[in-house]
C-alpha cells in the first residue's frame, strides 16, 4: 500500500532502492491487521507475526509514496459526496431498466486523458467512476494519467463524449475538495500542473488537456 505523504523539502526522484529504506507504518499496520483477522484470534504471537509479515512485504515489494500538497475542504468534500450519490442512484436506475428491457446494449471502451498529474487524484477519480454502475475502469496509466473505461449502453457518439466530460468533472470535484490553490487553479484554467517537491518525473505525451477520446464499440448481448 502506498503512503500518502505531505510534500516537504525537494528531493530527487524515488528509485526502488531508495524506497526500501523508507518505513511505511500505515501499510505495515494494515497488513498486520489483515493477518490477525485471517487467523481469527488476537494473540501476541499473531500480532507480532503480522507486523513481521508487514515489514517483510513492504521491504520486498516497496511502492512509491504518494505526494500530497493539498488540504481538506469539508464543504467541497460534501459536494463531492453528494454528486457521487446522485450519480450512483441515477446509474443504478438506468442499469435496472436495461436488465428488464429487451434491447441489447451497445457497449464501448474509451480513453480519457485526465488533467491532473497526481497518483492520488488519479486513484480517487478512478474509484469514484468505477463505483458507479455501468462504467468499469479497466486500466489506469499513471505515467500519462490516462483512464480506460468500459461503458454500458452507448447508443451514439454523444454518449461517449458525455461520459468523458463526466469523468473530467469528477476529477475536477476531487481536486477542488482536496487540492492546493495551485492545483485548483491548474484544473480550472487548464494550465500546467504544479510540480510537487520530491515527486517522480513523468513524461507528458499530450499538449492540451482535452486529448482525443478513442472508442471501440461492440455489440453485446446483455445477460
From TrEMBL:
Its main location: membrane. It is found in: Cell membrane. One of its GO terms (molecular function) is monoatomic cation transmembrane transporter activity. It is a multi-pass membrane protein. PANTHER family: NA(+)/H(+) ANTIPORTER SUBUNIT E1, NA(+)_H(+) ANTIPORTER SUBUNIT E1. It comes from the Bacteria. Residues 189-223 are annotated as: Disordered. One of its GO terms (cellular component) is plasma membrane. The chain crosses the membrane at residues 21-38, 44-65, 77-100. It comes from Terrabacter aerolatus. InterPro entries: Cation_antiport_E. Keywords: Cell membrane, Membrane, Transmembrane, Transmembrane helix. Residues 204-214 have a biased composition (Low complexity). The keyword Cell membrane applies. Belongs to the CPA3 antiporters (TC 2.A.63) subunit E family. This is Na+/H+ antiporter subunit E. The keyword Ion transport does not apply. The lineage of its organism: Bacteria, Bacillati, Actinomycetota, Actinomycetes, Micrococcales.
